[in-house]
Design brief:
The chain is an alpha+beta fold and 165 residues long. It is built from 6 helices and 7 strands; from the N terminus they run βααββββαβαβαα. A 5-stranded antiparallel sheet has the order 4-3-2-1-5. A two-stranded parallel sheet has the order 6-7. Helix 4 links the parallel strand 6 and strand 7. It starts with 5 loop residues before the first strand and ends with a helix.
């Protein structure tokens, strides 16, 4: 494991189950089994933490083992084509940003009415949007296929990373 690797999570609960259910409309079980994605980071204390967009905003102070309450996670190496330093630099620069509650609503509406309604608020992130932005900043070619960086869902990231291998 290295700082910058991706952490794909499957958590228990209604929100996680809803995200997975919605993703199954477009993706196979392989990619839609994840409802959260975060970025691995080695702390100064030697412990593993995650940088993630969560209800409290973009944070980097949660330990890896706490990222998928009642569920599990998989650490996936960052694609070799991504500049790890730039990827981490962008993610770190977003710590303290607000969570994109309206973006989640916009994603749900996009699944029902594609490209009709956009409710995002600038300066906010959802988990997969933060990772997508970091990947783009790091030069990930697969990010060019995403028409809207801010409403990328966890299965989009999992699929693109898998295809880059």
């Amino acid at each position: 494991m290295e700082s910058g690797d991706l952490v794909f999570c499957t958590s228990k609960g209604l929100i996680g189950a809803s995200i997975r259910w919605a993703q199954r409309r477009e993706f196979s079980e392989t990619y839609s089994k994840f409802n959260h994605v975060a970025i691995l980071k080695r702390g100064v204390d030697g412990e593993w933490y995650v940088t993630q967009a969560e209800a409290a905003g973009v944070t980097d102070d949660k330990k890896l083992e706490s990222v998928a309450p009642g569920g599990n996670y998989v650490v996936v190496p960052l694609p070799n084509s991504v500049d790890r330093n730039k990827f981490l630099e962008f993610a770190q620069s977003q710590v303290g940003s607000s969570y994109g509650f309206s973006t989640i609503l916009s994603c749900a509406l996009d699944m029902l009415l594609p490209d009709r309604i956009c409710l995002r608020k600038s300066g906010t992130w959802i988990c997969s949007g933060l990772v997508a932005g970091s990947l783009m900043y790091g030069g990930f070619v697969g990010a060019q296929a995403w028409p809207d960086l801010y409403t990328v869902i966890p299965s989009d990231i999992a699929s693109a990373v898998a295809l880059s291998r």
